[in-house]
């Protein structure tokens, strides 16, 4: 005899029966407890803060100067979130998580449009959300999650073209392209445009009418350009010639041909992709015949391959590479893997991932013990010295709670206990998401005190309010702006001009988070920051100390973007 459930029991049962809700619940602690991470996240918060502070929503600014590295859509959305939730980093993370949820919704709908088999669509969605890199990035204050949402809007337009809904398909292409350009620039044309360009391989409609197909693609690109130019032209006029050249040339042509940051070899993505796609790189097992045939067995598979492979190949050729550049391509990989798993002879085996979690968990659990006693054991002390591990890094390791490693061990043992074969990817996907949460919470708990710049930012704000001159030695990436709610730019000074600045501002202060400068004066204030320190000097003390030659210039001195 079944006992009637109370309302609260029914709510709890509904929550824990839906894997989407479980996914949200597992990732919510990251939203609440992970601080804004230097230097990218703090920089984007600074740009959004200046946009709000000065009311200039047309031309983004960083430290008082036009910021041309990225278009404004993410900064607009950050300010929209602040309007409702207040000036908090967690409010921004929550908004990014909402975009990730929208990505999963659009992706499942995409899979169902490719094939009405609900099990296949659900498995594909679980494969996407279970990719550990997707989980790690689901609330990151970056552009790539929002770009992925825009890409899926555009590829829904491609399926409309395939269904001969020409007008709606063209409009969705234009919308996805336009929003994508406003998010991260023309890279969306690679992420979403190439799957349309390869339409004759996966679409019978494209094969039957190539002229109309590519005409619709051209109109979609034109419509996307019009959406983007509706912002870019007024912004270029308002920002001036230098800003116009930056947004139209420097951040498009230069990035594609000779990237000025994150240059990596041709094969680099082949090394990082298997780690990004965990646990599936260890868990998906199938004969080589299945992997080969799945490339073209159905429109579902061909669409996934067309969404992933051409853009991946182009990104391998581009000089600048970062793992998150591949995030908009992971839906295509998930579609292909779902087809592989649906074939005879394929299976999910979670034991290897379980062993990996077990080993990683044990290492994380013993890390605090080893870090705290690194100098007391000859072998460990030799390892620390030979690898130039700083004392700050040892403090971070010693400060992490062993419970995080213990939780990872429990997950690994659970996978080993469940056996080697899973009926579906749900369990493994949720274990992967839980692993990502454990890792990010350990990161937050370990490095949180070392990335919190609120004390330094408050000192800078105090100097500004008191009229005390203060400058940062080297480029600071807007690190302190949002944390200190700074209302005026923080001046930058180069080491070569340091003494000149100090002589002109003898009552002023110098701050820097670089430790490479050969300054012999004792700092007035030292604060922990990452694996180094934030240092404050009085200008008079720097003038009294002997001068030393400038160090060799590094990339840290100049602005860089993700």
Short description:
With 562 residues, this protein is α+β, with helices and mostly antiparallel strands. It has helices at 7-17, 19-33, 40-54, 73-85, 89-114, 118-130, 132-137, 144-162, 166-184, 188-191, 193-197, 199-202, 204-208, 210-239, 241-250, 253-257, 268-276, 280-283, 288-293, 299-317, 330-342, 351-372, 378-386, 391-399, 402-418, 426-451, 454-466, 481-484, 498-504, 539-544; strands at residues 61-62, 65-66, 284-285, 347-349, 421-422, 470-473, 491-493, 509-512, 525-529, 532-538.
What percent of residues adopt helix (DSSP H or I)?
A: 55-70%
Major β-sheet profile: 5 strands, mixed
Radius of gyration: 26 Å
Give the domain tally.
Answer: 3
User: CA-to-CA gap between the ends?
Assistant: 60 Å
Specify the overall morphology. Answer: globular
Task: Count all strands and give the number.
Answer: 10
Q: Provide the low-confidence segments as ranges.
A: none
Biggest sheet, spatial arrangement of strands = 7-6-8-10-9
**How confident overall, as mean pLDDT?**
87
Number of helices: 30
Classify the beta-strand content into a percent band: 5-15%
């Amino acid at each position: 005899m079944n006992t009637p459930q109370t309302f609260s029991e029914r709510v709890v049962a509904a929550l824990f029966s839906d894997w989407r809700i479980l996914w949200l619940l597992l990732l919510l602690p990251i939203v609440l407890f992970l601080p804004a991470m230097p230097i990218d996240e703090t920089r984007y918060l600074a740009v959004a803060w200046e946009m709000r502070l000065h009311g200039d929503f047309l031309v983004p600014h960083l430290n008082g100067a036009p910021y041309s590295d990225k278009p404004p859509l993410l900064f607009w959305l950050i300010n929209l979130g602040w309007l409702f939730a207040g000036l908090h980093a967690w409010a921004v993370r929550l908004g990014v998580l909402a975009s990730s949820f929208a990505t999963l919704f659009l992706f499942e709908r995409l899979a169902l449009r490719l094939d009405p088999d609900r099990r296949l669509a659900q498995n594909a969605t679980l494969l996407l959300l279970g990719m550990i890199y997707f989980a790690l990035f689901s609330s990151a204050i970056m552009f790539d999650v929002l770009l992925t949402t825009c890409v899926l809007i555009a590829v829904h337009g491609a399926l409309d073209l395939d269904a001969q809904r020409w007008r709606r398909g063209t409009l969705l292409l234009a919308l996805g392209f336009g929003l994508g350009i406003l998010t991260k620039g023309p890279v969306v044309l690679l992420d979403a445009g190439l799957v349309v360009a390869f339409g004759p391989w996966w679409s019978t409609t494209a094969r039957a009418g190539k002229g109309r197909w590519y005409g619709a693609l051209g109109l979609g690109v034109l419509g996307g350009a019009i959406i983007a130019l509706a912002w870019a032209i007024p912004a270029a006029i308002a920002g001036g010639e230098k800003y116009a050249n930056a947004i139209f040339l420097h951040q498009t042509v230069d990035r594609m041909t000779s990237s000025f940051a994150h240059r990596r070899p041709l094969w680099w993505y082949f090394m990082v992709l298997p780690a990004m796609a965990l646990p599936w790189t260890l868990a998906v097992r199938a004969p080589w015949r299945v992997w080969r045939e799945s490339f073209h067995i159905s429109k579902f598979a061909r669409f996934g391959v067309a969404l992933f492979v051409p853009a991946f190949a182009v990104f391998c050729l581009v000089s600048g590479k970062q793992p998150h550049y591949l995030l908009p391509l992971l839906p295509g990989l998930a579609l292909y893997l779902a087809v592989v798993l649906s074939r005879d002879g394929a299976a999910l085996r979670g034991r290897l991932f379980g062993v990996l979690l077990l080993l990683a968990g044990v290492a994380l659990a013993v890390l605090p013990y080893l870090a705290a006693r690194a100098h007391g054991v000859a072998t460990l002390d030799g390892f620390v010295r030979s690898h130039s591990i700083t004392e700050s890094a040892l403090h971070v390791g010693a400060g992490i709670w062993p419970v995080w490693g213990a939780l990872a061990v429990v997950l690994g043992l659970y996978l080993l206990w469940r056996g080697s074969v899973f009926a579906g990817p749900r369990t493994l996907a949720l274990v992967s998401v839980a692993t990502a949460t454990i890792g990010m919470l350990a990161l937050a708990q370990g490095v949180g005190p070392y990335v919190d710049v609120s004390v330094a930012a408050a000192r800078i704000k105090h100097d500004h309010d008191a009229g005390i001159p203060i400058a940062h030695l080297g480029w600071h990436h807007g690190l302190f702006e949002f944390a200190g709610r700074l209302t005026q730019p923080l001046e930058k000074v180069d080491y070569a001009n340091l003494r000149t600045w100090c002589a002109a501002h003898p009552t002023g202060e110098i701050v820097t988070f670089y430790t490479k400068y050969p300054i012999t004066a004792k700092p007035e204030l030292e604060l922990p920051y990452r694996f180094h320190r934030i240092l404050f000097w009085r200008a008079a003390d720097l003038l009294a100390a002997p001068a030393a030659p400038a160090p060799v210039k590094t990339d840290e001195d100049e602005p860089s973007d993700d």
